[in-house]
Structures are given as structure tokens and as C-alpha cells.
UniProtKB/TrEMBL annotation:
GO terms for molecular function: electron transfer activity; FMN binding. This is Ion-translocating oxidoreductase complex subunit G. Its cofactor is FMN. It comes from Rhodoferax fermentans. GO terms for cellular component: plasma membrane. InterPro entries: FMN-bd (IPR007329), Ion_transpt_RnfG/RsxG (IPR010209). The chain crosses the membrane at residues 20-42. PANTHER family: ION-TRANSLOCATING OXIDOREDUCTASE COMPLEX SUBUNIT G. Keywords: Cell inner membrane, Cell membrane, Electron transport, Flavoprotein, FMN, Membrane, Phosphoprotein, Translocase, Transmembrane, Transmembrane helix, Transport. Its EC number is 7.-.-.-. The gene is rnfG.
Length: 233
């Protein structure tokens, strides 16, 4: 006679309490967050130093001979004040004053940007108060077509536009006397025009617009107050 078969009872599986799971995940998230914040804080000083060095090199490129550079803000109320942090308040315009070895102001560097062929073209341009003109440009960032758009960095005829590009203000000191405008290659007739590069017209126009827009905004605030920053503090 066979013994009746008793079904096997499956072993019970211990259930992880929901509270324990939440606490564990929370602890892991907290540790990861602490690591990320620590890494950010630890590298922040080096990042700022690298940015400062890169900016000083860019300013020296557009204003050769600069011995010292200081950052300022041109406020919407017309006041000029030192820029004591990396933040630019809403409505303020940041610029950089370059001084020679005697501490005298030798030029202003400011950033401008405009849409190019592939993306926004960001430039830094140097402004000379004595001639009221742009005396050099450098590219901060762009993603234009290699071999075409990047000619704005190497084309000597194009770069010659910025040896003395007229950016004088009008009699009321409210705007440029003449809009900086990029013209078709070979048709430049005025000191405030930018002669485009043949085959890279879109990028050339972006440079012209970037200078014009930035100068139209900054110079009417800066020029009437420029005596305040003629000497390095």
C-alpha cells in the first residue's frame, strides 16, 4: 500500500521591507551627491583659474601689450563698477579694461555673439578709446565648417578689417555713428564696413553683427564714463 503523497511546501522567501529599501536608496543617493558636490567644490578653484588665464590670453591677443586686466560692469543706469564675481547681473554688460605697464588704460575687450552657419559664433574684440575703433578680434567659441568658416581666424585680408574698424558714437553718444556692417567681398568702401571672406560670407556676417550689437549696447554706456577707469586702481 502506497503512502499518500504530501505536496512539498515551497520555502518562504523573506521580503525586503519597503522602508529598508527606501533608506538604502536614500543613503546611496546621499553618498553619491556628497561625492559629486565635493568633486565640484574641489575643482572649482582650478576651473576658475583656468578660465581667468584663458581670458587673459584672449584679451592679450586682441589688445597686444596688455600688462594687467580688470573686469567691470556697465550698468543700465550708466554707472561703471568693478565686477567682483563671475556673475553678471541682469541688465549689466561685462567688459574688461586692459592696462599697460604704467597702469594707464590701453583698451577695452568685450564679448559679442551672433548666429553663424552652424551655430553661434562668440568673439572677443578689442576697442581702442583714442581712435574709437576696434583693433582686433579673437574667437571664443564656434562650430563653423572647418576649412571654410574658420577662415575668420586665418584670412589675413579679413583680419585686416579689425586693425581700425570705425565704431565712433554719434553726437548724442547714444549709438554708433555708423552701423558696423559686413559687405560682399571686394566692395568695402567705408571704415565701418567689414569686407567678407569669399565663400564664408555667413560666418563673416556673424562677426560683423556680433561687433555691431555688442558695441551698440556697451559703448554708449562706457564712453561717457571712461575717465573713471583711465588708471588701474
Amino acid at each position: 500500500m502506497n503512502t499518500p503523497h504530501t505536496p512539498a511546501i515551497p520555502p518562504s522567501v523573506a521580503q525586503t521591507p519597503t522602508r529598508a529599501m527606501v533608506l538604502t536608496l536614500g543613503l546611496v543617493a546621499a553618498i553619491c551627491g556628497l561625492i559629486i558636490v565635493s568633486a565640484y567644490e574641489g575643482s572649482l578653484s582650478a576651473v576658475r583659474d583656468n578660465r581667468r588665464v584663458a581670458l587673459e590670453r584672449a584679451i592679450t591677443k586682441v589688445l597686444p601689450g596688455a600688462h594687467q586686466t580688470l573686469s567691470y560692469l556697465a550698468l543700465s543706469n550708466g554707472a561703471i563698477e568693478p565686477a567682483n564675481s563671475d556673475d553678471t547681473p541682469v541688465g549689466a554688460l561685462r567688459f574688461h579694461a586692459a592696462y599697460d605697464t604704467t597702469g594707464r588704460l590701453m583698451g577695452i575687450a568685450a564679448e559679442g555673439s551672433a548666429k553663424g552657419y552652424a551655430d553661434t559664433v562668440r568673439i572677443l574684440f578689442g576697442y581702442s578709446p583714442p581712435c574709437a575703433c576696434v583693433v582686433g578680434i579673437g574667437v571664443i567659441s564656434m562650430r563653423e565648417t572647418p576649412g571654410i568658416g574658420d577662415k575668420i581666424l586665418t584670412d589675413t585680408a579679413f583680419l585686416a578689417n579689425f586693425k581700425s574698424l570705425d565704431t565712433r558714437l554719434n553726437g548724442e553718444l547714444k549709438a554708433l555713428a555708423n552701423e558696423v556692417k559686413t559687405v560682399k567681398h571686394g566692395t568695402k568702401t567705408q571704415a565701418w564696413q567689414v569686407d567678407a571672406i569669399s565663400g564664408a560670407t555667413i560666418t563673416s556676417r556673424a562677426v560683423g553683427r556680433a561687433i555691431n550689437d555688442a558695441a551698440q549696447a556697451l559703448l554708449p554706456r562706457l564712453v561717457p564714463q571712461i575717465d573713471q577707469i583711465q588708471k588701474a586702481p
